[in-house]
Amino acid sequence: MQKSQFIYGLRAIIEAIDSETAINKVYLQKGLGGELFVQLENKLRKAGITTSYVPFQKLNKLVRGNHQGAVATVSPVSFSVFEELVDQVCASKKTPLFLLLDRVSDVRNFGAIIRTAVCTGVDGIIVPSSGSAPVTSDTVKTSAGAVFNIPIAKVNHMKDAVYYLQASGVNVVAATEKTTNTLFDLDLKKPLAIIMGAEDKGISPAVLKIVDHLAQIPMAGSIASLNVSVACGVFLYETVRQRGA
Asked: 72 pairs with which residues across the strands?
């Protein structure tokens, strides 16, 4: 990661949060205190920004300047406002296609998914504010630059995102092994949002309960599942096939 992707210093990070800079993660020095430090902690908690407490030496390796015990990594892209993105796409397209990633945490998987999403005409990607892979230089590289060509929005709760999409007339389909319904039996020509789950745990049970459809990819052989980026590609290209694009 290049030095330009860091913000450091207590007040500098506070100002970045106040100006809604796209911060991926903040590293704070273990055992540090003080009024300004506590103020930063409160803002990080309120904004839902991932925080990690690390030794002083870790911060020194990240930056060479006077970091004051706080270093933030900054996303190379700006994020869209979720509601504005959905409203705009639904108003301008008859059959919008959204992709929701429920805690996909590997940056390379994220990058590969973004690349496929752009190639298949996805109108926007939605990720949770915490627990998901950040957009880093590795994400940009794996996506082959596609990350700059698709809107990405963050939400505090995936359930709220599902409810908003449903209220906007969008059918929500969850990719999961916890069903006998297959992807190929679904009508994907309607306004659609596809949810892919975390690499290890899949989609959260609370989200699975409220979606419109559950669907799996038929599997043969002894391997029970596909890599999430590959599975996402199967779902998206079946959508493309059905829509005749």
From this structure: 7, 26
